[in-house]
Amino acid sequence: MQPGVLRRGQLWLNRRDWWSWDLAVGALVAAVVAGGSLVYPTIRGAGAPTYLYALAAAFVAMLGIVMAVMAVLIGLMSPSYRAILEAVPGGIRRAMNPYFIVVFGSAVGALIALVAALGWPAMLWWSRAGGLSLVSGMAGWLLAGTAQLLIVTFNHGSDSASIERHQASIRAAREERMKELRS
Predict the structure, then answer these.
(1) How far apart are CA 149 and CA 143, in angstroms?
(2) For residues 144 and 133, what is the distance between their CA atoms, to the nearest angstrom?
(3) 3-state secondary structure of 3
(4) Core-most of 68, 73, 93, 118, by most CB within 10 Å?
(5) What is the pTM assigned to this prediction?
(6) At what angle do helices 91-119 and 48-76 cross, to 10 degrees?
(7) Cα 90 → chain centroid
């Protein structure tokens, strides 16, 4: 097994899958919310649970969007493109890792947001600041990740379509060459 790689079932999770620009966006959002809630205690006020419930709903929406996009991608993938992805190290599962990360992160984010919102009255000021920053950071990370996945899915679709076009032109050229050889 390679260093830095965790194997769970058939899914390979590499550090490279997690550490990307969208995670940096989430870390920045978390830092801003943490700093803001420490400097301005009203951020941790009575309206915070409503914010957390809204983020829980947003996480569930992201979960549904990414699962639908993943299903469309797998369903519309041409056999030729699937063969190319299977030939790449890690295969199709490796190409699906970013989708799984966003789905898993959205589910965890929704649970954390719900627990924080429900436990808000019993939380201390520092746990409120931590909960707000963690959930906000995850929301920033996963929103940027979801947008990035939509772009990746578009690129997969475009690449799959271009393979079909190239195969059609190769077949036409082959048939033309076969006609020339028969004559």
Answers:
(1) 10
(2) 16
(3) coil
(4) 73
(5) 0.75
(6) 160
(7) 18
- List of residues 6+ apart from 72 with CB closer than 8 A: 153
The closest alpha carbon to 114, from 171, 37, 57, belongs to: 57
| Amino acid letter, 167 | Q
Residue 13 sits at φ, ψ, to 5 deg, of -115, 120
The 10s digit of each residue's pLDDT in 123-145 is: 998 999 999 999 999 999 999 98
CB 69 within 8 A of CB 150: yes
Report how far residue 61's alpha carbon sits from residue 54's, in angstroms, rounded to the nearest whole number: 11
Widest CA span of the chain, in angstroms? 88
With contact defined as beta carbons under 8 Å apart, do 52 and 135 qualify?
yes
CA distance 96 to 117: 32
Taking Cα atoms as reference points, which of 118, 124, 140 lies closest to residue 22? 140
13, 111, 118: which is closest to 63 by C-alpha?
Answer: 111
